[in-house]
Amino acid sequence: MSVAWWIVVTVGVTFGTFGGDVAAVQGAAKSGPLYHYEYSRIQEEDQRWKCWNEGYRPPKATSNKVHELGNGTATELQRILRFNQSSTVLFMFSSNSDNQNLHNECTIEANKLVRLTLDNAGLEKLEISFPGTENDCRLADLSVPRNRLTVVPLGLERLTALRKLDLSYNLLESFNLNQLAKATGIKQLLLSHNRLESFLTAELIALDSLHKLDISNNRLRTLDATLWNLPRLETFHVDHNRHLATIAGWSRVRFPLVKGFDPTGTNNWNQTWLKSVQ
Ligand SMILES: *[C@@H]1O[C@H](CO)[C@@H](O)[C@H](O)[C@H]1NC(C)=O
Ligand SMILES: *[C@@H]1O[C@H](CO)[C@@H](O)[C@H](O)[C@H]1NC(C)=O
Ligand SMILES: *[C@@H]1O[C@H](CO)[C@@H](O)[C@H](O)[C@H]1NC(C)=O
């Protein structure tokens, strides 16, 4: 890639007709490669309301939307991700570059954002960090797929308004379902394509609205559903956990909406167990 840029720079300088593009490319050559980005941000000036409610839309009179796309250096992307959360209610970032060399971090502030998406942002650290024992009652959608998070975001248990949590395509090794005990309205939990060796439930958890749970493409050898109270669970992906033979506590009566498991699938199903739950 750097060879290609060098050629563009040379040609540009030779003919002197590339204007701003050449300056941009030369700037990039000095400060490293360029990464594609695209983001949308909605700011809302009137921040007197506190908690998010189903059906919320930023009022037109007091909100404005920014949408930008381009190619930026790592530093420029970092600056984009450090947007001011005080007046922002929605921030959606995505990139289609290979972001192995981006090393980003994000700290979520209390009761500001309603929706945060950071897709393929080179995110290595994510924290939900605010003082005291306050919980967050605004963040309804936290989607950070295709990053390099090795641990679940610190403070996750303080998010009480979550409807969707997407941590797929990261490097997580364990997940404790009880961390979502206060997120009683959560509908989707997406954890596929991590390195999960454990998906734990230490005490009874009731998530009445959870209808989609994806823990496929991980490294689970054991799974225990005994303490799950998930009456609306309908879409349950657990394929591609190659050593998984059974799910303790699973039965059709407890999870009536789940259609069952593929007997010829990508797990190591104990066929006797499988027949007893299908
Ligand atoms: C970013 O760069 C790629 C090639 O490296 C180019 O195809 C694309 O059009 C650029 N995007 C923008 C928004 O400038
Ligand atoms: C962030 O936005 C708030 C509200 O608009 C403003 O008061 C504050 O000064 C901003 N902070 C920074 C660092 O720009
Ligand atoms: C397979 O499952 C059955 C029924 O749950 C159990 O009795 C048996 O021990 C299991 N076999 C192996 C090899 O784990």
TrEMBL record:
SUPFAM superfamilies: L domain-like
Transmembrane segments: none
GO annotations of cellular component type: cytoplasm
Protein species of origin: Anopheles sinensis
Signal peptide positions on this chain: 1-16
Keywords: Leucine-rich repeat, Repeat, Signal
Pfam families referenced in this protein's UniProt entry, alphabetically: LRR_4, LRR_8
UniProt name for this protein: AGAP011503-PA-like protein
InterPro entries from the UniProt entry: Leu-rich_rpt, Leu-rich_rpt_4, Leu-rich_rpt_typical-subtyp, LRR_dom_sf, LRR_domain-containing
Superkingdom, taxonomy of origin: Eukaryota
